[in-house]
Design goal:
With about 210 residues, this protein is α/β, with parallel strands linked by helices. The chain is about 40% helix and about 10% strand. About 40% of the residues are buried. A six-stranded parallel β-sheet has the order 3-2-1-4-5-6, sandwiched between helices. The protein folds into two domains: about 130 residues, Rossmann fold, CATH 3.40.50.1000; about 70 residues, DNA polymerase, domain 1, CATH 1.10.150.240. Its cofactor is Mg(2+).
Length: about 210
Amino acid sequence: MNAIIFDLDGVICFTDHYHFLAWKQIADSIGVYFDEQVNDRLRGVSRMDSLDIILEKSKIEYSLEEKRILAEEKNKRYVQLLNHISTADLSDEVKDVLQELCKRGYKLAIGSSSKNTKYILKQIGLEHYFDAVSDGTMIKKSKPDPEVFLKAAEMLQERPESCLVVEDALAGVEAAWRGGFFSAGMGEAATHKHVTFPIKRLSDLLIIMKE
């Protein structure tokens, strides 16, 4: 393997709580039940697809334009919450692992469905750290479709079989498998039947990837 493609949220940084708060505000405003269990289903999923999952519990049928307005309002609230993120939110483990993998000569990329990926990377001080950033602004299909990872591999000028995808969501590992990538899964992603390397923490990558 020549390259490593990281999911952003839950792997490089943790903004899950901010997503939850923003979606909760939207769900409450339209009288739809929303909790952590529903939020778990949204991990790795695009904004519009996430909204469709939330609206499964709605008694009202929303038009495409109404959904677009709700999704934009959610993103506005989410971005406001992201203002609280800083370089202090980047863990020493993540920083050390990225530096060591760079030192070993691996190409590094981000593969995230989030349209706020570049903003988040800037907030945590990693905007110039990766060789490629494939995000929600570049794709039409979210995970478990492999498009975001295929785009990252293309930007790195690597074939899927030369890349390892690092994920914490089942949909992410499924996307990696569908795209022909090797995968390392943390947390729930470690239980996927097609995960190549189940890992407990990001630093386990230093054992998997040779010096």
